[in-house]
């Protein structure tokens, strides 16, 4: 991208796009709204509204190849999360959605475009094919916010990632048909070549990665750079074989790596999510800045009708046909029937194809870009504002995580977990030894017994609804390992640690001025009482909320609520001493 120009304006524009992408995601997290909605709005404001940035001019001809590569990397990252063992119930549904469902969406969308706009049937078919694409750039953030249960969560995630290369391939075939009319057999062959080339190249890329990792040819510090380089190479090679086959290559590579058993999953899934967040923010800011507001406003009334057809006819018909005869529950079907946003891939493909059509035919397809952009904007707004409500209304939303994980190598951790369980607080004890785990089982306390690096830890935390964790341990290795995995799963802000003499784990402090030594020296007993009854002999540890949640006390003593505290007022009774007296014979 930087090679497009050496001017300071290009550097400033790129820096602004990346900065706004990160700022938009931070703002969305604070406001608890979909990040794609904030990012798209921000891009429109700094682009067509204020005219601060113009990616097409600032970056130049490298823009859309860079966008395509960025989408390919997002698909690779998304593919790394596609576990076949988590899709026991919905495999058949996913296959139908990306084949039969894509066909239904294409036919209905193309026919509606042909009826509403002044385009030929071939042009309508091209626009309809582009509108088949959904994409992880929108679907995954919405799923993270709405938190639907299984199987709808996995089905939608799989569909959102796999449909991108399939929809893009269909669009390429329709573009070739529009420019150089061909028979259906040739179109089918073109689709097979594109998808086949992408799958083969992606498989080769996965094999190269596994050889390097499995034989320890790649140092640990280079795992992420090596995987990134291999994914980029697979994308480029596949595109040389067939246009847009790179999207299929990166998707296939991520999918294969996620489901192999030769290399431990931890060595592969460490592919940095930070890069994914930067790409996501950059793409949507760029998309918003590329919008031609006048053209979009001009087609908006007709696009509103098109959107209604896609949302209320095409998507329900697609889900109905894809779930017919399966055991997917009705609520999950209704939620999936509502979720079909369009993302950056559709907008990027439309822009690139618009240029190619004008160059090849000499006649621009004026409706292509504004129609697709308008659909993307409206679907992002519609589903971004309704995804959470739809998940709750269809009753597929998982309960809000409220539980607490106690990570401890001492009996006080067991006692604390016991008190929490007795007050109906969801608690999970994570202990390093089998003996403590057996004792927890005898007390009826849920405990985690598998290795901390095992994927089942994530399943246990998610299944129980664990929101936070507190470490009560003086074993540095155990504490370091536990904090590493829990921070990656729960977030650093949700992992607390009691002070010890060991190394500082850079976690949030727990239990006020209590330390591990003072908590485990036997001088204190756990007590539960209202905050107003706390004395100077009590040290508040946790606050029990009315919503069945325990809040970890960090520094200031709480002033209200039911408190679990360490009490040091206990004094054992002094044995009565019988005074000496006369001894009777």
Explained architecture:
- It is a single chain.
- Residues 1-6 have low confidence and may be disordered.
- The radius of gyration is 29 Å and the shape is elongated.
- The protein has a 6-stranded parallel sheet with strand order 3-2-1-4-5-6, with helices on both faces.
- The protein has helices spanning 8-31, 35-49, 55-58, 63-79, 91-98, 100-116, 121-130, 136-146, 152-179, 184-214, 223-241, 245-259, 273-290, 293-323, 330-338, 344-361, 368-393, 411-422, 434-442, 456-464, 476-490, 516-520; strands at 403-408, 427-430, 447-448, 466-472, 495-497, 508-509, 525-530, 538-544, 550-552, 562-567.
- The protein is built from 22 helices and 10 strands.
- The chain has 2 domains: 2-393, Up-down Bundle (Na+/H+ antiporter like fold); 403-567, NAD(P)-binding Rossmann-like Domain (Rossmann fold).
- Helix 1 (8-31) runs antiparallel to helix 2, helix 1 crosses helix 13 and helix 4 (63-79) runs parallel beside helix 12.
- 60% of the residues lie in helices and 8% in strands.
- With 585 residues, the protein is an alpha/beta fold.
